[in-house]
Write a structure and sequence with these properties.
Length: about 130
């Protein structure tokens, strides 16, 4: 079993930055990739970014490309999400998730799944609020 704990959420002004972290513990060797998802009030949960533990290319939702960066620290079993140029519409609860599944892209590399049903373990979530 894998446990995930997110940290780093908070209140920030539009244009500002936040860094989220997700610490994984337990049977982390059973996971292949990590993802960040978010859910805004009244909306469905959506994929934000994903990364494999083995060095495959990270993937991003179009809405965050160029602003968010996902990274991993294998030795510490930690995945981070650096969020820059935050917008009001980024306000949401952000969730870290782990999966044993990988997607093999047509470009010839492995990447993290982008659908939430592909993930087996979820953190408790951390609130990110962007104010004007």
């Amino acid at each position: 079993q894998v446990q995930l704990v997110e940290s780093g959420g908070g209140l920030v002004q539009a244009g500002g930055s936040l860094r989220l972290s997700c610490a994984a513990s337990g049977r982390t060797f059973s996971t292949s990739a990590m993802g960040w998802f978010r859910q805004a009030p009244g909306k469905e949960r959506e994929f934000v970014a994903g990364i494999t533990w083995s060095g495959g290319r990270p993937s991003y939702a179009d809405s965050v490309k160029g602003r968010f960066t996902i990274s991993r620290e294998n030795a510490r079993n930690t995945v981070s999400l650096q969020m820059n140029s935050l917008k009001l519409e980024d306000t949401a609860v952000f969730y870290c998730a782990a999966t044993a599944r990988l997607i093999y892209s047509n470009s010839g590399y492995y990447t993290a799944p982008q659908i939430d049903s592909a993930y087996d373990t979820w953190g408790q979530g951390t609130q990110v609020t962007v104010s004007s």
